[in-house]
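Lecture 7 notes: from sequence to structure.

We start with a single chain of 469 residues. Read the sequence below before looking at the structure.
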Amino acid sequence: MKKHFLALTAISLLLPWGGQGLHAQSNLSPEVLRSLEEAQTHTASDRALRNAISSNSINKMALDLQHASAATDTYFSLETKNSGISDQQSSGRCWLFTGLNVLRHQAMKKLGTTNFFFSQIYCFFYDQLEKSNLFLQGIIDTRRLSIDDRQVMWLFENPLSDGGTYTGVADLVSKYGVVPQEVMAETYVSNSTSEFNSHLKRKLREYGILLREKADKGAGVKELEAEKVEMMKTVYRMLTLAYGEPVKSFTWAPKDANGKAMAEAKTYTPLEFYKMVSDGTDLNADYVMLMNDPSRPYNKVYEIAYDRHVYDGHNWLYLNLDIEEIKPLCIASIRDSVQMYFSCDVGKQMNRANGLLDIKNYDYGSLFGTTFGMNKKQRIQSRDSGSSHAMTLMAVDLDANERPTKWKVENSWGASHGFAGHLIMTDEWFNEYMFRVVVHKKYLNEAQQKLLKQKPIQLPAWDPMFMEE
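Now the structure, written as tokens:
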């Protein structure tokens, strides 16, 4: 009895509610608070620094002026040229703009024009329609699970978003095709998606609950799916009110820089137009997503469960490689004038004024009198860093030894942002904050090609590295 009492007493002292005599690391006792206060200095410099930091932008205070004053080197030894910069405005559609910008580069070669953009809203309409169906069908598929189950909770937390991935672009254009920008124009809602999305998500969650309630009352899959189709009619109507009716066919001719038709106009369906401008390229079969995630073993293929845009489409699949294996593949693609879908943690160490991504831009450690020492693996594991934005990788500058020194991407934040609508990243920044790039499989060596044949390791949809861009 005495042994049991002593053991319980020892355990109680380790718990937050253990009572008297708590350890310093267990709670902020008056004694601990006093030690924290006494550790602070109160010099005139401290007061000046406190006044400055509390009244200004942290980035403005931490900007390394000596580094920032140096002119940004904008020369690139290898570069694929594009004309025109797109603007996603107040929407989370960078993934779609990037995917279509990569395809746009190919399309302009095919069409012989420098004056061409795809309609993002056309693809986005079907993206939102497909994601709505994906959510409702997911609710039907998980109807036997408790509403507190992690997968069911994830579904209700993420019924729909305007974010996405390369795989979403590939599945959408393969199923619905593409149209020129002037055939289906942007709307206020497509350029500022959050307000409308909040209402559509609320409606989807309501429908999800109704489907689960019907399932609890004995409704079978066929009955639930028939009910889902009726629900989707309301979703379709909401989407048409926000984005317009999707184009079924159109008559169009390529135009020169002055807007003059360069050929006789032809009539296309969106799928016919896609097949014409893509020359039969299979965006799923011909390309592979490469990831640099040092928190997981390299040379493995991973698949993200339930992370897709289209129910009958593809889950997110990628090959995890060391960063130094990825760079030669990117360089080979740029040499061939083939641009790439690229994503990174764009908000880290970004100087918005000149569009430079450089780990030396801001000295936060000196400002706060500490260090920020996590490496890439640790930042991923602690949820401090992950891919947040997709752009088009289009240029690299190589030194005398053919080693990259900097890279350039075409962004989708408008021509006035960054360096004429582009961002330039140092190779050191690339190492730390680049996560994903999609390359044609032909650039992979034989050993890398073999790695693609292994059975993918499946990860859950809520894995922190796989948030939509």
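The longest strand covers residues 389-398. Keep this in mind for problem set 3.
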